[in-house]
Amino acid sequence: MRAIVYVVMFSSWAVLESAAFAQNRVLASGFDEGWAAPAWENDSISLGLSAGWLTGESHEYVYDGGDKLSELIWSMEHAYVINADLGFKLTPSLKLNLKASVAGHIDNYMEDYDWLGLDYGVTDWTDRSQHDDTELDHFGRVDLSIQYDFLRRQEASLGALLGLRFASVQWSAYGGSYVYTSDPSSTFRDDVGTIDDGVIGITYEQNFTTPYLGLAGEVSYDNISLRGSVLASPFSFIDSTDEHWLRELTVTDDFEPTGFFAAEAEASYRLNHYAQLFLNVAAERYAAAEGDAIYEYYGIGGNFDLDDGAGAEHENFQLSLGFRISN
């Protein structure tokens, strides 16, 4: 969470600095005075590739009557990430942006907590399982946006963003250890054991669809550029699927729209007219969402609905180094 705050602070600074710099240039030179943009600012197409490190986590909740009965914490402690970005300058002030990211497994972890003693006055967790052998099955993100620079000067610009972001993440937990309570009415954490290595226990997937608005700014000096953007939306749509393989149970969750916030900052150095190196940091957060759950016991047959019985949230942070070319 602290890393996300740092990215937000830097991105906000870049956006505000761009606005101030562009406005000062306008006041100093006047709107009627012509100016010549650097040749590289007229690039109509750009393509960037980068790779780096990704970390983050998702939370999965089960509620009953407002009480939290279960929480699963899925962590990407370390993952590699590969990014691509494609930009089309439609007019000097209007740009189409397309970005995509995929990530792979390095080091992941899951913890599962249950509170099954609430009816007996036990408020602490009764059951816990820990899974060091947790794999990141996939992480993917695609972002499409239109950017309009309403302040645009030679060394700075500030623009508005309208976009749509799709993201998906899935983990699978294998093996692990557990501490269970066999009878919450009379015992407490009395059943301790392990699950055989390689036995799959749970697979969890979250999907996100988010329309958003944002601001993007850039400040340049000589061959060095600083960019930043902030995005926000109150309408992020989430759904999730939870497969409990040992219980032959599938839980499907559908959530009410929730809040989304993202920030990105980038420093780049232009090698020549066509190429630049850049360092990028990015973070995003999907606020806690609540919704309904459908439980399907495919082994024995039967299902039931749990209204307002599901919760989910997600956040991630990434650091990437890349190379960008333009025509």
Summary, kept brief:
By secondary structure, the chain is mainly beta. The chain has one helix spanning 2-29; strands at 45-64, 67-89, 94-114, 127-152, 156-180, 191-221, 224-244, 249-255, 258-270, 275-297, 303-326.
**What is the N-to-C order of secondary-structure elements (H for helix, E for strand)?**
HEEEEEEEEEEE
Number of helices: 1
Beta strand %: over 45%
CATH homologous group name: OMPT-like
Shape: elongated
The assigned CATH architecture is Beta Barrel
Q: What summary fits the major beta sheet?
A: 11 strands, antiparallel
Low-confidence spans: 10-14, 18-41
What number of domains?
1
Please count the beta strands (DSSP E, at least 2 residues each): 11
Question: What structural class is derived from the secondary structure elements?
Answer: mainly beta
Q: Roughly what is the average pLDDT, rounded to an integer?
A: 90
* CATH class category: Mainly Beta
Give the helix level as a range of percent: under 10%
Distance between the termini: 38 Å
CATH fold-level topology: Lipocalin
